[in-house]
Design a protein that fits this description.
Elements (H helix, E strand, L loop, with lengths): L1 H83 L1 H14 L11 H60 L23 H58 L4 H30 L1 H14 L11 H45 L7 H12 L10
Length: about 375
């Protein structure tokens, strides 16, 4: 009886122990699964946050690069405007130098002299303003590059983190890459919290937006300055030219008709010379397209067997060669006509100058030296940006 009783007790204890073990296993399995699901959900949320901030950074980087390109173009235009001021300044100074050669009573501080001095002052002041503007643009470009570097660095870090967290999110109990790392939970490599992490990225984006705003305002101010300089330069140029014309008219009303013919002839010579240059450039520009078409034909001539097909591409290439050659021939004929007309104009100009030789002694400085160099300067190029 004692043995039976002990047997019943031991079996009951064993049964309770088994039941407790089964219950404990179920609880631990459920707890482990719930913990793993919660960790996966947190990783998914983290992936969502990373993706959001990465997209925000990419969007801001695209806008920043676009603004950088616009500001670089503005810098190019500003630098070109600054360079464009050198020829009119040189011309104005040269006019002042030539007018110092006047003799006797003609050496007077007239309106032309005042206009030239004003023009020189305006051009120098404009150059100083444009140089200051260039310095500001260079500094702003440097700030934009710093923001670009910060954004790109943040994007690289987030792309790397996205790859790591994506791999972690896809890991399961059946993945091959899982392993034991004893004590890893005691190591804390983190250096930021959720708030500081998101705030750091937000600050980079806000800094970039702030610099883009400064850049846009600087571009607007620069465009206004360039237009103002262009208008001032044009007005000074026109004012000086008008003063010279008026001064010349006061000195030679009786000679206006012949002088007008000479002026028109010189202007036409300038126009036809520019036209000749354009024709020569047009002929030169046809060289590379002709080479391309002929090279294509030559390359397609190496096709093997039945591949030597007179297809639409071959027909069009042959037609293209003929069209380009015909265009070159037409341009050559037009160039020959223009050069002939240019020679006629030069002969006409020589005849007019020969007739005016005895009549332009008093007008030589103002009309030939000063107006001669001012007439051919392309002032409009300063305004057409």
């Amino acid at each position: 009886m004692a043995t039976f009783t002990e047997s019943d007790i031991n079996r009951n204890q064993s049964e309770r122990l088994r039941n407790d073990a089964v219950r404990l296993m179920r609880q631990t399995d459920e707890k482990t699964s719930q913990s793993q699901r919660d960790a996966g959900r947190r990783l998914g949320e983290r992936l969502t946050d990373l993706t959001f901030w990465r997209n925000e950074l990419n969007t801001e980087l695209e806008k920043l690069l676009s603004e950088y390109a616009l500001l670089s173009d503005t810098r190019r235009k500003t630098n070109k405007a600054l360079q464009d001021l050198d020829p009119p300044l040189h011309i104005a100074q040269e006019c002042l130098y030539h007018r110092e050669s006047r003799q006797g009573i003609n050496k007077v501080h007239d309106n032309v002299e005042k206009s030239l001095l004003t023009e020189v002052d305006n051009l120098r002041n404009s150059q100083e303003k444009l140089k200051m503007c260039l310095d500001m643009i260079d500094k702003q470009l440097s700030d934009l590059r710093a923001c670009q570097h910060a954004l790109q660095e943040d994007i690289i870090y987030k792309e790397s983190t996205l790859e790591i967290d994506t791999v972690c999110h896809k890991l399961s109990n059946f993945s091959r890459a899982i392993n034991y790392f004893d004590g890893i939970e005691k190591y804390d490599p983190t250096i930021s919290s959720i708030e500081t992490w998101s705030r750091a990225t937000s600050l980079r984006i806000n800094k970039s937006q702030e610099e883009r705003g400064k850049s846009a305002q600087l571009r607007s101010n620069t465009d206004t300055l360039i237009n103002s300089v262009a208008s001032l330069t044009w007005n000074s140029w026109s004012g000086t030219n008008n003063a010279l014309n008026k001064r010349s008219s006061e000195m030679c009303e009786a000679k206006n008709n012949m002088q007008l013919h000479l002026h028109k002839t010189q202007q036409e010579i300038f126009d036809i010379e520019r036209n000749i240059d354009l024709l020569r450039k047009a002929i030169q520009d046809k060289a590379n397209p002709l080479k391309v078409a002929q090279t294509r034909l030559e390359a397609r001539g190496h096709r093997a067997g039945l591949e030597q097909c007179k297809d639409f591409a071959h027909v069009r290439l042959v037609q293209e060669v003929h069209e380009i050659q015909e265009s070159i021939n037409v341009l050559h004929r037009k160039l020959k006509d223009a050069e002939g007309q240019h020679q006629h104009l030069l002969q006409t100009k020589a005849n007019l100058e020969s007739n005016l030789k005895k009549k332009v002694n008093a007008l030589f400085i103002d009309r030939e030296k000063c107006m001669g160099i001012r007439r051919s300067f392309p002032v409009d190029s300063l305004i057409k940006y």
